[in-house]
Design brief:
Length: 184
């Protein structure tokens, strides 16, 4: 199965002091470059969801998609933009601040989704779900639009309302979010 990857970099960066997280430097490179390196080999198409610094993100050579509104409503809006733009049935969403994602992430999520016949496969560790690391069926776009219009903006709540499977990963550090200046 072909997979579209969507790197979610469309937030306000409130926990980063307003900095655009994807462009914040980590170990000598912007965070987004680490995520691109991890996800690009796993997908057939790559999109970047961003709402600021579009030219900077565009320099990576992948299509940049913006949220459908200017309200910065969170990751669900980035997922919606990805679902509406994706060329493939499976859409892998990952945040821009997780530089050590597993090299077999997409494969394991696809395998579980197919095995259980569900619409969402979400990564899970011993510490719980990683809701912004998930594989979605593109056909969920209208469901997600209705959810956002209805004001429900928590990723986990939306996933729980869909047919889903939590896929266990043992390496918690692979999902470490570098979303504050202290975590960098």
């Amino acid at each position: 199965m072909k997979v579209t990857g969507v790197i979610l970099a469309g937030g306000r960066g409130a926990r980063m002091g307003g900095a655009d997280k994807g462009l914040v430097m980590h170990a000598g490179r912007p965070l987004i470059e680490w995520v691109i390196d991890r996800i690009r080999p796993q997908v057939d198409e790559l999109l970047i969801n961003a709402n600021r610094n579009l030219d900077d993100y565009g320099r990576y050579g992948y299509r940049v998609v913006t949220d459908l509104n200017d309200d910065f409503v969170g990751p669900l809006a980035g997922m919606q933009a990805g679902l509406n733009t994706a060329s493939h049935e499976y859409v892998l969403c990952v945040p821009c601040d997780t530089p050590a994602l597993p090299a077999d992430l997409a494969m394991r999520l696809v395998k579980s989704m197919e095995q259980f016949g569900c619409d969402v496969a979400v990564a899970a560790t011993a510490e719980g779900w990683q809701p912004t690391v998930c594989l979605l069926r593109r056909e969920l776009a209208s469901n997600l639009a209705t959810t956002i219009i209805g004001g429900q903006l928590r990723v986990r709540d939306w996933i729980e309302a869909c047919s889903h499977v939590a896929v266990p990963f043992t390496d918690q550090s692979a999902f470490a979010n570098l979303n504050t200046l202290d975590s960098l």
